[in-house]
Amino acid sequence: MATKVQPVSEVRDPVKRGDTDLNKPQTKLIIGGLLVSAVLLIYLIFTQNIVQPLLLIIGLLLGYTLFHARFGFTSAFRRIMSVGNGQALRAHMLMLAVAVTLFAPILAFGYSFFGDGVAGYVSPIGVSVFVGAFMFGIGMQLGGGCASGTLYAIGGGRSVMFITLLFFIVGATVGAAHLPFWTEDLPSYQPVSLATSTGLGYGGAWLVSIILFGLIAWITVRIEKNRRAPKMAPVPSTSGWKRIFRGSWPLFAAAIVLAVLNALTLMTRGAPWGITSAFALWGSKVAQVFGVDVAGWGYWQGANAVALNSSIFADTTTVLNFGVILGAFLASAAGGLFKFNKITGKNAAASVIGGLLMGYGARLAFGCNIGAYFGGIASFSLHGYIWGIMALGGTFIALYLRPIFGLSVPKPKDSFC
């Protein structure tokens, strides 16, 4: 086993048999989480349109699923790059396969639940995407989690992630201020959709996507065999219907649930799941309070200006983020796992640097592991694939940086998350 203890958001502990071996549910915390969720839901029902309370519910389910399965992007990239274990990356491929299967007809017909039309995340390809995704790859390995990982780790009580989130917001805000330089003054090309830019149509793009996911999954299997990669250790769980609420979910079950919930998000708000645009919004609103002319930034021109001048509760991404945090909190309390942990100087420094890199990188790359990687690939955008490749490159570099901050790196002999 590894000699260093990793946080619950990243570790899959040795399995314990039987429900009695699991931590007892933290009943008071569960009740508190449900009350906060109910109050927020009622507030949204009476102050916002119907989309917002529905998105809060979806966000709760996303957060519950992420924490319950310990479904990670940061650790998945780190495992394949460090010891060659591709189990989690294959779960990503299943998630993406289900997502493109659901997204294809939704995008092809262009209808949402409320008749406002739908649009996937198909973004331009340029220097900003390459640099931003590479920065994000380094940042998530230092910060201890990606965008979704940061939110669900906060919901689970991992103290240092509050620092990561704070500087994630700072980085996203600065990135929003600098974005015109990266997209207008440096080389940038039009968005490329496998469906609409190639003549394949959504049917052809779906087939190509499925083949690519299968190929990537096969490559990870070959890497595992060649490198004799260690297997992931399971987390404590139970059996039967109780497993829905307590214990861990299999990664592949969570992959399917996340894909379905992303499709529901697309049908509800007309766009896929995203996270980091809300961070730029929060930071920009705070900057406004201190007299910064945020409205003059190129990023906040056009359609984005509406969000800047409205309540954060009118922002769909913000509501989803709140839901993810609350959902993860409920999942951690149900498993008896919510607990604040100690912050050290080294991991705090790593969180500051990681958060800044992720926030800035996400804005440059038109999204994070959710908006660009998950949402982009599910929307048949070429930039999503580029994001994944560059983030893997950043992860490789970060493997040499993590020990400087006292962060562990999986070794071939380890049983790990």
Summarize the structure.
The chain has 15 helices and two strands.
Care to describe what's here?
It is a single chain. This protein is mostly helical and 417 residues long. It has one domain. The protein has 15 helices and two strands. It has a two-stranded antiparallel ribbon. The protein is globular. The N and C termini lie close together (11 Å). The N terminus is likely disordered.
Chain-averaged pLDDT: 90
Please summarize the sheet with the most strands: 2 strands, antiparallel
**Which percent band covers the strand fraction?**
under 5%
- In terms of per-residue confidence, which ranges show pLDDT below 50 for 5 or more consecutive residues? 1-20
As for the number of domains, it is: 1
Q: In which order are the strands of the major sheet placed?
A: 1-2
SS field, number of helical segments: 15
Question: How helical, in percent, are the residues?
Answer: 55-70%
Structural class: mainly alpha
Helices and strands, with pairings:
Elements: H1 27-47, H2 51-69, H3 74-82, H4 87-109, E1 125-126, H5 127-143, H6 147-155, H7 160-185, E2 188-189, H8 201-227, H9 251-269, H10 276-289, H11 304-308, H12 316-334, H13 345-364, H14 369-378, H15 382-401
Antiparallel strand pairs: 1-2
Helix pairs in contact: 1-2, 1-12, 2-6, 2-9, 2-12, 3-15, 4-8, 4-9, 5-13, 5-15, 6-7, 6-12, 7-10, 7-13, 14-15
